[in-house]
Amino acid sequence: MTDKAAAGTADTAGTTDRAGTTDRAGAENAPDATDTNGTAGTATATGAADATDPTGAMRMNSAGAADGAQSSDRAGGAGAASSPGRRLISVDMARAIAVFAMFAAHIGPPAKPEGAGHLLVAFDGRAPAIFTLIAGLSLTLSRGGARPRPGPPPAGAWRSTLIRCAVLAALGLALTELRSGIAVILTFFALYFLAAEPLARLGTRALTAVAAVSVVAGPVLSYVLGPFFGYRVVGRGRYPGFEAVTSWSGFTDALDTLLLSGAYPWLTYFPYVVVGMALGRLVDLRRPGAARRLLGWGALATLAGHGLSALALGPGGGREVLLRAIAQSHAYAVNTPDPVQAVLNRQAGAIPSTSWAWLLVDGPYSQTPFETVANIGASLLLLGLAVAVCRSTVLAALLRPLAVVGTMGLSVYAVHVVARAELHPHHGWPALGAFCGVSLVACAVWAFVFRSTPLKRGPLEWALHALMPRATGPAAGRSRRP
Q1: What are phi and psi of 85, to 5 degrees?
Q2: Which CA distances in Å does 280 have to 80, 173, 233, 369?
Q3: In Å, how far are 8, 68, 158, 192, 330 from 164, measured between CA atoms?
Q4: 26 and 48 in contact (C-beta within 8 Å)?
Q5: Does 51 have pLDDT greater than 60?
Q6: Cut 0.85: pTM above it
Q7: Mapping DSSP to helix (H, G, I), strand (E, B) and coil, where does residue 116 land?
């Protein structure tokens, strides 16, 4: 994204740099997602999903509960039969690609439609959305996926959720205080998972309906509520720091940030979580036809999001309405090459509440219904390609190092924030290549060295899992192998 002049509470320079925000010096900096981390659930030794680690690394337990998904990708393939203790590496692979898209946003060159820059343009603004959608998918997979485990949740499920959210929030606040210029998404993720817990108990039809409604309702509510909280013209894109827990005013301001005005507010980013949760119920990634369904749905959603927006802004006259609104409320943007984008840049990606026509745009980080639909489509396309690739034993083996990065998303994310804060790398292809290469090698070495220990899942992933209490009760021992 770009370093925007956003009202970031944790960035004294007032700029945000996120896997979903921009460094409007031309280079993307974002997720979420993904600054996002692609959170997923882990299952306890008793069979209950007790921890959601932002890497999506869910493990099979001794009772046969889901490990990172409905089970395995045989020979690395997603769509093969179940095999206890194996991961859906297609999901890990998609998450790793989102990690690298985040790197591109934070330390890569500007996303321009020329040469290799076309790839950056394709992922512009999508990293946080992909991470967040995969987080919801992994949450559902940890509970049985397309065949959810029956019965009430195990005792202690809410306690585990609260602990998990508290840890993620604390880590997010700590990383924010490094002043890396990255709008850290982990604190937002804590709220997402807290809100996802009751939805995880809905039936498939109800969950799918909530997902569909939220895609439109979230952005619309954000637009409607903006003026009541002082964000009619500008003021979005913030993210909370330690002041959220050191004073009452800081706490209330953090709630505003997390729900409405932040870089990844609950209203406009939580729909990705719900869509991911519904996707986990609707598609069994082990089935041979899963890739075709994901690719078909993804292509349809991407075309619908971008195509309908183009029609509404062009033949529908939406852009003319926006230009009039800009002349009245955003005079600074009138004489810029692209007045609409200039306004969005000042909003840190969110739309202002000066005209309903803003809801018709589909630009990166605009957080509108059309952009949300298009980002969902891109996420499904990426997952579909990953599932298709993993059907090949040879390709799955060759891409295994990429999937390993996906299993350690939280650790990789945290380290990259620290590296950005301490090393201050210059934006460009060399820095992007170095970050990606070091991540691949470091994760592979870590996984090899600790292959026979719980630490193999990644240092922060292991720590988060270790903090989770063991679930008890009848549901804990009644897990069903998916």
Answers
A1: 85, -5
A2: 16, 30, 38, 22
A3: 25, 17, 10, 11, 42
A4: no
A5: no
A6: no
A7: coil
